[in-house]
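re the bet — no i am not wrong, look at it urself. input seq straight from the record:
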Amino acid sequence: MRAMQSERRRGRAGAWGAGTLRVAIIGTLGTLGTLGTLGGMGTGAWGLAAADTLTGAAGTSEESTPPRAPSLSTGVLTKLHRANLEEIARGTFAQEHGKSLEIKNFGRMLVKDHTATEKKVAALAAEEGVELPALEDGSLVKDIAPGPDFDAKFVEAVVEAHRNDVSEAIVARANTADPKLKTLLTALIPVLQKHQNAAQTLNNELVRDQKQSTSNSMSSSLSAGAKESP
């Protein structure tokens, strides 16, 4: 009789453990889903990385797997990795196709800064057992193309991407319990803000120049028309 009661107690404990694991997974994914979209730095990338970490941790034993980062850290590092590669690709594209020296120089700064950041992201990911995905260059920059309006399209894309990146990095820093990730984000946020502000300044200058060019063209047309009148 005592043996049967002991078996029933163990059975109930196992059921509680499984139920608790499912609730923890669902609750964690729900929390990650509220973080929003790291521009190029989206919800899908954060949620997928988190789900991979949780299912991997639940399905393997501690003896057979290396230590893994908390799910939020995994999602943030994955998103930072993609954002860095996107901006490196944009910066390289700007150096090749930019119409003005200012755009080419800005592209060079993007490549330099995001390459340095990517080294830090990769180092932390390796330390915490996070496997960063390989990304094809052709899939990284779809919002700009060579052409007469390249400069304008380029700075618009950079402003939008960095606006999202700054917002999400601030949220991630506030939510993470990983001190090393928090330090990384604290150092990164001013760099992203610098890029956003520089791109916005370039965009304002392009808009101003375009308006001035349009105004000059209209004045020239009116002047030519007046000269032709009898």
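see?? DSSP finds six helices and no strands in the chain. told u. also The domain at 69-218 is CATH 1.20.1260.10 (Ferritin). so pay up
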